[in-house]
Amino acid sequence: MKKFKKIILAMTGASGQIYGIRLLEMLRDLDSEIHLIVSKPAVLTMSVETDKTEDYLRRLADYYYSPSDIGAAIASGSFKHDGMVIAPCTINTASSIAYGIADNLIARAADVALKERRKLILLVRETPLHQGHLSTLLKLSQMGAIVMPPVPAFYAKPKTVDDLVNHTVYRVLDMLGFDVEYERWKGLILKDKEID
Ligand SMILES: Cc1cc2nc3c(=O)[nH]c(=O)nc-3n(C[C@H](O)[C@H](O)[C@H](O)COP(=O)(O)O)c2cc1C
């Protein structure tokens, strides 16, 4: 049976591994075909931040690649997919993509997504940002990437960290074109006297 959407998900070594993990879990629930690449620093950061293991991620993915597997199908523009997400995305990986340094499968698949005009969503996590970071992110945006730092929104009145994480992940799924239900901003209900 054909899966709903084919998605490439990469996780790199920035803080916020939970974003990649949650996205993977939700993509699994949405019955998509998941092509997963996890950098070595991501595995390290995941061990610091969560109780999840690389094995757990591997089990949820349909295809699991090493970042050194530069000959994988997803390294080619002839591999058609519905979008690539890097969550979380380091400055290191964002910089490689911005300057076309495609020496690992994550940067190569992202480079290919851009050249083939496919969707590339980058949950870049670093703070504060110096001018070099900012110009890299501007360059990525100008090249067609969606630069989406995982900055939480508070209007949905989150009560838990999970609420915050899920809201951002739902926004990513929205961007990938999935039909998902979550707490959307419905506009302010103003009292009569406040309208004019
Ligand atoms: C616990 C931990 C947290 C880190 N957090 C960040 C971060 O938020 N943003 C970032 O750009 N790099 C962060 N780093 C550094 C990256 O992991 C490092 O630059 C690494 O070389 C990135 O490689 P990758 O892009 O292949 O995953 C962190 C490293 C560790 C160990």
How would you describe what is shown here?
The chain has helices spanning 17-29, 40-49, 54-60, 91-98, 105-115, 131-142, 161-175, 192-195; strands at residues 6-11, 33-38, 63-65, 84-89, 120-124, 146-147. The chain has 196 residues and is of the alpha/beta class. It has a six-stranded parallel sheet with strand order 3-2-1-4-5-6, sandwiched between helices. α4 crosses α5 (105-115). The longest helix has 15 residues, at 161-175. The structure holds flavin mononucleotide. Flavin mononucleotide binds at residues 12-15, 39, 41-42, 44-45, 48, 90-93, 125-126.
How large is the share of residues in beta strands? Answer: 5-15%
State the name of the first-level CATH class.
Answer: Alpha Beta
The ordered H/E elements are: EHEHHEEHHEHEHH
**Helical amount among residues, as a percent range?**
40-55%
Mean pLDDT: 95
**What would CATH call the architecture?**
3-Layer(aba) Sandwich
Assign an overall shape: globular
Count of the domains: 1
Task: Supply Rg.
Answer: 17 Å
Number of continuous helical runs:
8
Q: Strand order within the widest sheet?
A: 3-2-1-4-5-6
Structural class: alpha/beta
Major beta sheet, specifics?
Answer: 6 strands, parallel
By CATH, the topology is Rossmann fold
Which blocks of ≥5 consecutive residues have pLDDT under 50?
A: none
The CATH superfamily label reads Flavin prenyltransferase-like
Query: How many E-type strands?
Result: 6
Distance between the termini: 55 Å
- Distinct compounds present: flavin mononucleotide
In short:
This protein has 196 residues and is α/β, with parallel strands linked by helices. It contains eight helices and six strands, in the order βαβααββααβαβαα.
